[in-house]
Amino acid sequence: MKIAIIGSGMAGLTCAARLSNAGFAPTVFDKGRGLGGRMATRRAEGGFQFDHGAQMIPCEDAAFRSLLEQAKASGHVAQWDMGDGNANAVGTPGMTALAKYLAQDLDLHQQTEITSVTQTDAGWELTADQPLGTYDRVICTAPAPQTDRLVGHALTEPLDQVSYAPSLTLMVALNRPLDAPITQTNPTDALAWIALDSAKPGRPSRHCWVAQSSADWSATHLERSKDEIATLMLDLFLTHHGLDATEVAYATAHRWRYALVKEPLGQAFVASTDGTVYAGGDWCLGPHIEHAWQSGTAIAEDILRCA
Questions:
Q1: Which CATH architecture group holds 1-35+103-162+268-307?
Q2: Which of 8, 77, 270, 283 might form a disulfide with 72, Cβ 3.0–4.6 angstroms?
């Protein structure tokens, strides 16, 4: 059985790893350069590093906790003391590490954007900038709007009920230590989160901070250029901490259009009537990495059950 998986975020890699462990050889395609989706780590000249997407890995599911313990034993995950009496798992040396742990020995094709998924007599034909072949099963784990455009015509349920909140991220490195809590939740109306990224385990010893804007502020400024977003968010960050621009060594911004699931589908995945096309991701169950893992696992188990 030839299996194609679209998306190398948590859901796609989880599904691929489970199928691979069961003896299949899925092919994973992703339009981005790096693995992990929002489990993203940005490295910049000067030794600066930032987790500019998901900040931590909350866990309630016992089976997901077991995966994190295995990844921890291999050095891909560690506990982060957040300075407020709480601790959460994070990838180490960056949030992408958990994705890399899952991706070991998989057939990965990054920077390959799937533009069409077309049914033929032989199966489902995938096309990027050129034909990629025909597959017996196609699993799409892109954000719901992108999934709908690619394979919505084949699914038994519409995805238009799924909704997201956007998020804008500022990455800023300072020339000196900052006397502030290493994590701040909702410190201002515009900023929903500030964290000293360099305080996470395994990070370079730099003064690297990440700030993420509130959903309302993000929606208002979503279509601005990244330079404009960086300028506006840097001003918010500096004003909040009583700093001036001379203390900034590096700053940039990132736009997450599909950041946090507000209204999930309410089930682990959706499929075509004949079970040859599946769609899933965090958008099926909720906003956390764990939800993406649950969706990817459920898809793989359904394919194995029907195989």
A1: 3-Layer(bba) Sandwich (3.50)
A2: 77
Q: Which two tokens stand for residue 33?
A: 């350069």
Cα(176)–Cα(184) distance, integer angstroms: 19
H helices present in 22-143, as ranges? 62-73, 96-102
C-alpha of 122 from chain center: 33
What is the spatial distance between Cα 263 and Cα 189, in angstroms, rounded to a whole number? 23
| pLDDT tens-place string over residues 117-173 | 999 999 999 999 999 999 999 999 999 999 999 999 999 999 999 999 999 999 999
d(C-alpha 179, C-alpha 81), whole Å: 17
User: Phi first, then psi: what are they for 78, rounded to 5°?
Assistant: -145, 160
3-state secondary structure of 69: helix
- Summarised one tens digit per residue, pLDDT across range 182-232 is 999 999 999 999 999 999 999 998 899 999 999 999 999 999 999 999 999
Closest by CA position to 251, among listed 52, 26, 68, 9: 52
Dihedral sign (CA 282, 285, 291, 295) = negative
The reply to whether 1-35+103-162+268-307 and 41-98+163-263 are identical in fold is: no
User: Average pLDDT over the chain, rounded to whole?
Assistant: 97
Is domain 41-98+163-263 annotated with CATH 3.40.50.1390?
Answer: no
pLDDT attached to residue 84: 82
Identify the CA nearest to 171 among candidates 100, 224, 229, 258: 229
pLDDT at 205: 86
The proportion of the chain whose per-residue pLDDT surpasses 70, expressed as a percent, equals: 100
User: Given pLDDT bands bounded at 50, 70 and 90, which one contains residue 83?
Assistant: confident
Give the pLDDT confidence score for residue 255 in this predicted structure. 97
Residue ranges per domain, the chain? Answer: 1-35+103-162+268-307, 41-98+163-263
